[in-house]
Amino acid sequence: LLAPTEMSSPSLKTGAYILIGVGALTMLMGFLGCLGAVNEIRCLLGLYFTCLMVILITQVAAGLVIYFQKESLKEELSSIVGSLIENYDPANDDKRNLQDTWDYVQRQIACCGWTGAKDWENNEILINKSMTEYPCSCSNSSKDLEVDSGFCNLDDPVNSTATYADWPVHEQGCMDGVEKWLKDNLGVILGVCTGVAVIELLGMILSISLCKNIHSEDYTKVPKS
To answer: What fold does the segment set 88-187 form as a domain?
Structure first.
């Protein structure tokens, strides 16, 4: 979980609240839909339709916000990651989950830092150790493959001090790595989003059809005077 001082971005907070709200609404929606369909209750089917419509509108709105505010979101994320790298401490258990997540990102994307390995020169622990250590999750050396997190010792440093250029780490920054991953998987992402939207539209259509059928049945059951 993000610490309060690090999770300071209003946009990210809003996004988290939206996801929580959508998750709760989805659970409620599924319950109402099943109950309405089984018992043929028109008002519940109407609520099911409304929930689906709200979720679809929310998804479209979130997509538009991300597209038009991507530069602002990138700056906010850069600030958060910069603070995380600067205060990264393997001995700090309070931030272990967040630090492990960042180590995982660096290992999986094969990147180092947000804009590059130079970002790690701001880390307080590495500065105190004259940069003779480096983040293990950034390493491109086979000897560090089994080390998941923390700092690794630089073998035979040329001087008593070193720089990020002396580290056996990936040159690519994680910002570029994430952008490249998104571009490479853009088709899959759009396909999944389109599939979800189509399913939601079908659910809306089916709920309307059921409401009409129930109304027709109720009308035919009304005794003629």
So the answer is: Cd81 Antigen, Extracellular Domain; Chain: A (1.10.1450)
